[in-house]
Amino acid sequence: MRILGITIPEGKRLEIGLTTLYGIGRPLAHKILTEAKIEFGKKPKDLSVEDENKIRGIIERFKIEGDLKREVAGNIKRLKDIKTYRGTRHARGLPSKGQRTKTNSRTRRGNVRKTMGSGKRAVDKK
User: Fold this and answer.
1) Is 23 exposed, middle or buried (0-12, 13-18, 19+ CB in 10 A)?
2) Are 55 and 77 found together in one domain?
3) Same structural domain for residues 46 and 15?
4) pTM for this structure?
5) Which of 44, 71, 91, 105 has the most CB atoms within 10 Å of its CB?
6) 51-77: buried (b, 16+ CB within 10 Å) or exposed (e) per residue?
7) Domain residues for 47?
């Protein structure tokens, strides 16, 4: 089963498989399947053509994949252009929502600045 050029995994349950699309999480997947009147546990290989078309029709109403990525990138670019605090944090690659940076924030800053131990040198044992 393909939706917007992305293949939904055949072996996984539909509620999990739909989350492979950017912008669809578990709650939205549940909402889509409930509206289409399809069981959450059903697998894509077991679906009929009408069921697939129902799911496609419902998903087309939402902003997902490329459109959503473009919108998010546009929002961040706007923040950078008007030089807001959040925009400058995005530009520098630092956390933008008030987290501390002395420790933690490894995912945002990268693993480059890793300190091992306390910084004191261990005395050699004899």
Assistant:
1) middle
2) no
3) yes
4) 0.72
5) 44
6) bbebbeeebeeeebbeeeeeeeeeeee
7) 2-59
